[in-house]
Automatic annotation (TrEMBL):
InterPro entries: UDG_Type-4/5 (IPR051536), Uracil-DNA_glycosylase-like (IPR005122), Uracil-DNA_glycosylase-like_sf (IPR036895). Gene3D superfamilies: Uracil-DNA glycosylase-like domain. The keyword Metal-binding applies. It comes from the Archaea. This is Uracil-DNA glycosylase, family 4. Keywords: 4Fe-4S, DNA damage, DNA repair, Hydrolase, Iron, Iron-sulfur, Metal-binding. SUPFAM superfamilies: Uracil-DNA glycosylase-like. Residues 39-157 form the Uracil-DNA glycosylase-like domain. GO terms for molecular function: 4 iron, 4 sulfur cluster binding; deaminated base DNA N-glycosylase activity; metal ion binding. One of its GO terms (biological process) is DNA repair. Pfam families: UDG.
């Protein structure tokens, strides 16, 4: 099993920022000129892991970098930059203490959305990479990613109706993670950008690194 290669609580030694664990997509349905897949990207030893849906929504089919190209993707990258996780070019940023990836990494033709079967096919790849990064804070963006993260990495999915407006920038304890959902930027209202930036700043000011495994904050 892929995940068995990456024992938990062991930090990675790699200088690769794109697809650091060499995952291979199980299928290629991309349009001509697009990347077969938009692999995970960033600091493989990050404490913060931002999880998007798929390239057609959050971008990267041409650049190969998550959270580029689309309006929604650029808005998330703007948040990441606001807390000094990212610097450099927008289309290929330098990331520190932050990793970006998608629940469904493969590109699809003609703007198609992944089917339930497509998500299921890539489930083990996403899980292996997430556990290999072993971040303290999971930041799922949008309903699909939030549902996936809450179901698989917390015991609290049954408590929530996936009302992203109420879940946005909220602390949810997970099994070894703290989960902070992010409403998709295309749906942001009022001060929702400021809310997630403030939440991240508060976490960074806390002793979150001391709480890995119990997923609580001491601040």
């Amino acid at each position: 099993m892929i995940a068995d290669r990456f024992p938990p609580c062991v930090k990675n030694v790699t200088d690769r920022t794109s697809n650091p664990f060499g995952l291979r997509p199980p299928f290629d349905r991309s349009d001509p000129g697009d990347r077969t897949a938009v692999f995970g990207y960033g600091d493989a030893n990050a404490d913060f892991h931002v999880v998007g849906d798929y390239p057609g929504v959050h971008g990267g089919e041409s650049t190969g970098i998550p959270f580029t190209e689309t309006e929604s993707g650029r808005a998330i990258q703007d948040v990441v930059r606001a807390v000094d996780f990212a610097s450099g070019p927008t289309e290929r940023p330098t990331l520190d203490n932050c990793f970006l990836s998608y629940v469904h990494m493969c590109s699809l033709t003609d703007g198609q959305a992944p089917t339930a079967e497509d998500y299921a096919t890539l489930e083990r790849f996403f899980d292996a990479e997430l556990r290999a990064i072993n971040a303290h804070i999971l930041l799922p963006v949008g309903e699909r990613a939030t549902d996936r993260v809450l179901r698989e990495y917390t015991t609290q999915r049954r408590r929530f109706d996936l009302d992203m407006a109420s879940l946005h920038a909220r602390d949810i304890r997970g099994r070894g993670f703290l989960v902070v959902p992010i409403r998709d930027p295309l749906e942001w209202e009022d001060r929702e950008r400021e809310a997630i930036v403030s939440k991240l700043e508060a976490i960074l000011d806390s002793d979150y690194r001391q709480t890995k495994g119990v997923a609580t904050l001491v601040g």
